[in-house]
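I hope you will forgive my troubling you with a question about protein structure. I am sending you one protein, given as its amino acid sequence and as whole-number tokens for its backbone shapes. Thank you for your consideration; the sequence and its tokens are set out here:
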Amino acid sequence: MIIDETTVTRAEQTAFALRALYRRYGYIPYRMGKFEEYDLYSRNKDFLVSDSVITFTDTSGRLLALKPDVTLSIVKNYREDTKGTEKLYYDENIYRFSRGAGTFSEIRQAGLECIGTLDPAAAGEVLILAAKSLESVSDDFVLDIAHLGILSAVLDRITSDSALQEEILAAVGEKNLHGIRTILRERGISPEKGEELTRLLSLYGEPEKVLPEIGQIAAGAGAGEEFEFFRRTLSVFSDGGFGGKIRVDFSVTGDRNYYNGLIFKGFIAGLPAAVLSGGQYDNLMRRLGKNAGAAGFAVYLDSLEQLDDTPSSTDFDVLLLYGADTDPGELAAAVEGLQKDGFTVRTGRSSSRVRAGRTGVFEKGSITWQA
């Protein structure tokens, strides 16, 4: 008898694998409701991917929102009297406006947060788990990592104008060296002032190959302490266990009102956008009145469906077809036998006459018969 493979989607398989991975590292599950007070999001809209939030008024008159983010809720509920470092993981649905679809979408995310004392060892563990998360999806991945503290120090050497820094930062995110030079020229800033920045952006590659030169740039910008943290954190990959899939890339940026140190994105071959995004958000902790360090990331499980080549039209493994003269006892025995082998089974009447004692198996849209 020919049996179809399971129809569990790649996203579901990945979510299961990620939960098991995070538990092995001592992270505990975080559960939240669908709703959160809107004020939390309205005060931190620039932290969100989109500032559009679904809101409604509950029976007590409070303005609530369908959650567009998990991290903000975790930080809000963090208690500073927590002993040691709090390590949490989640698998949640969030609700965000999709510009491509022009409407709100329910998006499934899995991820983790490490809150408390964030030293290079703790930060390094977050990076290892980010790499292992990508590896659980595909062997063909890249994790790009940067440090906003170093990048900010280099920007400070160019200009103290925060608006101009943000303009330059947008070009950095696009790795647009020509755009950076154009911005500097139009603002009357000498090209020499931008040399360190363009040099930093050109240093893309495995940590051990590019860190020495990045260290020189950081020292010149007065960011020696930030570089030392960056170097020690990246030492978790010194054994080369991920086969050159860890890259330093200073075009990875984020909102400096929230992120302050490590920042990273993960990519899978075959998908055009990042499937994992994260960073160190001590600034967000301070904005919400919390005196602690923090880092974390999210895996966008919905995007993995673009890689999913399993059939999604059924939620069972075997479709067992029978005819008008099929013996019910024989059919029941066949179902029980398949279920004992671990298959989910659905029975159905064949549209054509089927001889007694013959069964049909649905496999990828075709019917195969076996006596």
